[in-house]
């Protein structure tokens, strides 16, 4: 039976065919009255593994192979940390308090010691002063020269400190505090990079692929907040280039975005951001958009 005849009759059975997993998922979720939760979950998983949605988000994380002996060593390390907590509960609570303060984004206290979270290519995000964080992808050594962005000031690593003592070299996934050799002005949201590394971009304008998450449409005439790493700044949507059809990946002209729309946009930001493309680094290549009136997250973006 042709698809034209199907539409004149019961079109639901046609939509529920497995040839297009994303269409089957939406039909089960929104049209099928007797669909079970488990069946919808399976269809959703299949839709996210294939088709245009998977193509757009297809930036793979590296696969890490671990041998049985390595896993045993990791388990032993975790057991040792648990024993250390039991031996010094007060110190463990103090360390937990520092980590929680960092997680909720408390404002930094200006001292001679600054710290941050390194990213690929030697990028290190300033989170808080004298608060431990995680090195993610590269080694940081005592004496390394680093450049603070966006100011461009340079300094050297004076100390690398952990809960267990000082280190000469730190690497992923250690949690460390970094002391810099000079008293330089570093505020929340700044980053530092190895001076020998290729620096990220430092700009007030960017282009991105945006997924609109709010029930309220995008309003190009109003200001929003963009949260990128730990920096939050006001922004305007300067261009709405096109909307992407998630079923065909075709590009269509658009003057507004509704919930679940995906589009290519340009933003102007009040403060300079330090960023990479999403394909280079997920952490510094992604952001969220916040409605400053309601504080709700209305969109998520991947920088081009």
Quickly describe the structure:
The strands form 3 sheets. Strands 1, 2, 3, 5, 6, 7, 9 and 10 form an 8-stranded antiparallel beta sheet that branches. A 6-stranded antiparallel β-barrel has the order 11-15-13-12-16-17. It is built from 7 helices and 17 strands.
Number of domains: 3
The amount of beta strand, in percent, is 25-35%
Low-confidence stretches: 60-64, 100-134
The coarse silhouette is globular
Largest sheet: 8 strands, antiparallel
How would you describe the overall organization of this protein?
- The structure is a single chain.
- Helices cover 25% and strands 33% of the residues.
- The protein is built from 7 helices and 17 strands.
- The strands form 3 sheets. Strands 1, 2, 3, 5, 6, 7, 9 and 10 form an 8-stranded antiparallel β-sheet that branches.
- Strand 5 and strand 6 form a beta hairpin.
Which key terms come to mind for this protein?
25% helix, 33% strand, eight-stranded antiparallel beta sheet, single chain, globular, alpha+beta, Elongation Factor Tu (Ef-tu), domain 3, 304 residues, 3 domains
Q: Secondary-structure blueprint of this entry?
A:
Elements: H1 3-8, H2 11-15, H3 21-30, H4 37-49, H5 51-56, H6 68-87, H7 89-103, E1 116-119, E2 123-126, E3 133-134, E4 140-141, E5 145-149, E6 154-162, E7 165-167, E8 169-170, E9 175-180, E10 191-194, E11 201-212, E12 224-228, E13 231-244, E14 251-252, E15 262-275, E16 286-290, E17 297-303
Antiparallel strand pairs: 1-2, 2-10, 3-9, 4-8, 5-6, 5-10, 6-7, 6-9, 11-15, 11-17, 12-13, 12-16, 13-14, 13-15, 16-17
Helix pairs in contact: 3-4, 6-7
